[in-house]
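Structure (tokenized):
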């Protein structure tokens, strides 16, 4: 029989002192909901969300999808005919960092702002200056829960079809490689042309 250590197990860990409970989760859920309802009633009939731009998701995997962005660029606001300070007062989000990389995104988001302004009801600060038509339009307005202007629909996918003879003759890979090479060597080619032109000019002078 081998000599072994006598069992002396320490099981008094007081684990119940380190257990985290979550019994207040249903109460918090109800409190957040009540806060949302109270906020919506307080700002009614203003929309619950700021107007935001339509942007494309990053990376090649998801860039075909369109989602709601952070805010409109200064260029988009300028094209729509409003300033950034005024946009912030009428429920339009502004992003000073985002830039427009294409004419399509500029046109789409400028149209979003114009559609929003067409539906917008702005009352004068002084009650005396408010007309009866403005008051009626304000009373008839309905609060929109989401985005006032919906996101543009993505174009439907093209139905399957047979490949044409012209498409078969096109060499896509070769065309891309030639364009890439021409882009990379553009500066060097221009420099060589300028040097040859200068040499010819100097030889004619002699």
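Design, position by position:
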């Amino acid at each position: 029989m081998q000599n072994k250590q006598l069992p002396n197990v320490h099981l008094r860990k007081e684990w119940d002192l380190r257990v985290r409970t979550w019994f207040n989760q249903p109460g918090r859920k109800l409190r957040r909901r009540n806060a949302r309802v109270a906020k919506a009633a307080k700002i009614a009939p203003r929309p619950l969300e700021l107007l935001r731009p339509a942007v494309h998701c990053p990376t090649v995997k998801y860039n075909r999808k369109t989602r709601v962005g952070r805010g409109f660029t200064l260029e988009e606001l300028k094209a729509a005919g409003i300033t950034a300070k005024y946009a912030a007062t009428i429920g339009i989000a502004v992003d000073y960092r985002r830039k427009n990389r294409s004419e399509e995104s500029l046109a789409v988001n400028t149209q979003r702002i114009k559609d929003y302004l067409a539906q917008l009801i702005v009352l004068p600060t002084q009650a005396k200056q408010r007309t009866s038509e403005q008051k009626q339009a304000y009373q008839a307005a309905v609060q929109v829960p989401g985005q006032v202007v919906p996101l543009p629909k993505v174009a439907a996918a093209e139905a399957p079809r047979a490949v044409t003879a012209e498409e078969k003759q096109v060499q896509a890979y070769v065309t891309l490689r030639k364009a890439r090479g021409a882009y990379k060597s553009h500066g060097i080619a221009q420099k060589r042309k300028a040097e040859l032109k200068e040499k010819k000019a100097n030889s004619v002078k002699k």
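Reviewer-requested clarification: The mean pLDDT is 91. Residues 186-205 form the longest helix (20 residues).
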